[in-house]
Amino acid sequence: MPGKISITAAQHFRDAFTFVTKDVTQWFPGHMGKGMKQMQSRLKKVDCIVEVHDARIPFSGRNPHFEPTANLRPHLLLLNKVDLADTTHNEAVEARLKEEGVNRILYTNCKEVHNETVKQKLIPTILDMINRNPRYHRQEVDSFSLMIIGVPNVGKSSLINSLRRLNLRRGKATPVGPTAGVTRSVLEKIRVCENPKMFLYDTPGILSPIVSDVEVGMKLATCATLQDHLVGEDTIADYMLYSLNKCALFDYVKYFGLKQPTDDIYELLSAIAKQNKQVMKVKSHSGKDSKNGAMHMNKM
Description:
The protein is of the alpha/beta class. It is built from 11 helices and 6 strands.
């Protein structure tokens, strides 16, 4: 870690994060239930299932309701946004995932224009998986169909657009966005490769109807898998600060121009607001607006 930050003996950080009482663990809009039914109805037309998940939280938030669906066809887990993740523990991550029954795993960054995994490894891996398994009634079909599944905002649509850009020199076929819930239904087949002929279905991000572990819910919110307003920007920023301090990751001190690490989210948000000239004068001390600072921190 560059620029080691010294911690004074007087500094003490929280041993645990106090979660808000607002229930943020049940977010299952109607389009998610509809999307799950559409996915299941198209399974007989699919040769392989590609599950996309955020590499920063490889164990948190993967929808257990996908398991019966994924087990019916060859299943590849694609851990996306690897450029934002700590990759020093990849071997341990893969070992645990294999214990959970996930045998084929790839890492990628679908925002990277010429990502090696998408360009060189993904299609051959999928073909190998399909060829190792019976295709049943699709044995005589000369094209391959995939289904992309995963929780919201993990890069499913970005993967599709990346495949089209690299293999077909085509533009976007499906919309993408920085927040959860852009894709809201199972789209019709989208061509992503000509040789071999390969099509896929984009699907809406679908969370488990109930996220029983609130901390898992906070991790999902921190990675923008839950919409910010459901949890609150301040709460997400505070959880990020708690996590950084817990892991002794103090780069935020220099980044935001602080004198030392802090465990007070409002102290940090005030510094961010001043740095970005988003301070307004108020008569009441309790009337300060921290939302802009929180939103800026969440975009780091």
